[in-house]
Amino acid sequence: MVEHGDIRVVRRGGSKINFRQPVITNDSRLLLCASGHSVKVFSTSTEECVHELRGHTDLVTGVVVKPSNHLQAYSCSLDGTIRLWDFTDGILIKTYDIGYSIYSIHTSAFHKGVVFTVTSTISDKKSESFQLVAVHLPQSGDQLVKAPELSAVISDVSSNPGAIVFGRGGEYIASANGLHLEVFFFKKQKTYRFFLKKDTKTGGKNTFMCVAAHPKDDCIATGHEDGKIRLWRNFNHQKEYTYSTLHWHSNAVSSMCFTPEGTNLLSGGVESVLVQWRYNDVSQRDFLPRLGAAITHIAVSPDGALSCTSHSDNKITIIQGIKVSAVLQGLVTGESVETDLMVDPRSKALVLNGKPGHLQFYSLKRDKLLYNLDIVQQEYIHELGLQQFKVVKVAFDASGNWMATVEERKQKDAEQELNLKLWAFDEQTQSFVLNTTVADPHESRITAMCFCQAAASQTTMLISASEDGHFKAWQLRRLAPGEDDGPSCLCDFVGAYRGLVPHCCCFSADGSLLAVSFQEVVTVWSPASWELLATLSQPPKAIRNLCFGRLSCSKYLLGTTDDHLLCCWNLLTCSLEWSTSMDISLLLGDPLTENIAAFCCHAGSTDLFVFKPSEPRPVFSLKAVCSGKVTHAVFAPREEMLESCEESSQWLNHSQLYFLTQCMDLMTFTTKAEEEKLMASSKQLLIDDSVAMTPFYLLLGKHRKGESGAAASGESAGRPPLPQGSGAVKELLRTPAHVLPSTSFLCSMFVKSLLVSVGDARSVESKPAEEEMESEKEEEDSEGDMESSASRPERGSLARRSAEPAAPPLTKAQLRELRRVKKLDHSWLTGLLRS
């Protein structure tokens, strides 16, 4: 984490959830997975993230459930610590400092107080030699504990956690690395090694990829690079071992796992198919195909009710039986992002490349994938060297009603194929629907594309620039409800400048100007008449980025060049206002303020400068934001504006800046106050002491608060107060059950808290008697009052007595009934009428 005063650079969403094998809890209700610097806890039924366990300062490399307590879990990280969590409440219990980077963690019920970790043999992260060590966790009451007692178990192991497994409850441990399999027996303290040749006579590759151990029998299953699976037996003898071979996978077996009873063996690979082998009859197989992407990890719950698979597209699929019950989808980044980072104006979601041929709409606030949109609409074929369509450009208009995409495919001996697609937003489906497809909109590759973002514009205009030396203006219109024919996209203008190749284009904030760069010349056009207004050719090298100023800085146009210059032109005078030497990899403007963000490469890292074109001093600057070059970033408007008073962080009040590193990590800038507010909201477990925080309670919370103020005066007098429990009982109910003392110890204390002393009981009995005597006196007084009030009409005027017949006097029984009705509580009727 990088800090600069009040500003921090943090990971915010988009971390990989497929980096390590996930863990399903004993009751199959929760799923734990490593995600960047934290551990995420998901609900297997609702797919929601219940907790995010934060505390590690480096990449989390493993998660396992504690064998002696199934409500706690260990996590390890490259920061050299092992942390013990109560994952049901999201609480950090203890931290063990190992002192070495940890690449994976393994536990066994057979070894109490000991965890097994994989560390490098040399204290250098670049080392490729690893060892399996046993870490003895000391018993201490402190939260931070040093664990210096380490003992080596196997010297040459793989850093892949799937290549190490315990067998028969922890009696032995098997490790596969390269072309050898090593089995270590703890009781005998003896190691057996088995070797395979690199290649078979038929061309098979025998490299070990993963390993699994049968929970009850002495059987080890190993997956290999050529797609074969070997079942090893009699491996407790160096020369009498045997193995049988299974083969279905066409490529490397990436992961395997036995079911808890050992009846089935699950395997997966790049075919995106989960294969279930019968252990007693391996000729029988069941398949779960079309899981979407290559399988990287397989896990099964301890009760066998659920299984899950991790996939290469940052997805976890939860399987119940032979059907998919839930899907946890993370941000798909892959090896590169072809499109720029965009923000959907409607959903405020981050939009970029997802699965091959798709666009993903990812919610930054919820850190969850909203949906995938199939752009290419063709089946993806997993074959090396096969050129397929890929999405390279995407753009949105200001209202979010239109989206434009560009897809291309380059064949070796054929011309490049291009498709420009226009998508209209459908209110009924709440998604984009294909409206128009323009085949070969240009004769060569499209270099830039942008919409006119002016809110007051009558029509929607799209600009596309290409390597063929032209830029085109497309007019978009929606068809009327009764209009079925007629084009919805028309090419309104084709522009060029002296045969030069256009590289980038952008509109001004009000849409009155269009800037297009033709190599080292910047041309300024009027979209209303398509007249060339001005040419700016001050820099000697080609222009890489263009950006108009906004609000008070709308008269400025900024651009970067190949010779590491940042130039600012004044459009009123058509002259160069200022320039500075900077190697800028990315230049973008905040759509809500005058601020411009520039990512500058320097000494193998990237610096950030935030400035206003009209001011010489930067608003904010930060050195070494990340290593490598930043080529993708976006300003995302905030739903609620921050109220930061410090000058260095005011540029984050309206928008939040996100960027992608070379390692495809999504990073953002945040303030300390914002982080503290986020941590405080995550730690709030209950809103009310007496009511649990459920979605239904959150929905009706405001309604109840509004009614309580209006009905407090009437209901407080009529209804008796609810009995309040003692503090000890409340604390007993709040505390998690697994950290409470034994029931026998709590029983006597709990019963005593419910008992009432003899003195208190007598006082309680005397109070009803006194209240009864007072009520009898009140009844007598009320009888006298009612009799006197009944006799008053008889002493009235003679005229009234002659006009109306006299009412008969009430009997004593009627008076008692009337008093009883008056004492009834009618507040329920008020609530009924109000509802």
TrEMBL record:
Gene3D superfamilies, A to Z: YVTN repeat-like/Quinoprotein amine dehydrogenase
Record field: compositional bias (Low complexity): 708-718
GO cellular component terms, semicolon-separated: small-subunit processome
GO biological process entries: positive regulation of rRNA processing; positive regulation of transcription by RNA polymerase I; rRNA processing
One family name in Pfam for this protein: Beta-prop_WDR75_1st
Compartment list: Nucleus, Nucleolus
Skewed-composition ranges (Acidic residues): 771-786
Signal peptide residues on this chain, from the entry's feature table: none
Keywords, sorted A to Z: Nucleus, Repeat, Ribosome biogenesis, rRNA processing, Transcription, WD repeat
Protein name as annotated: WD repeat domain 75
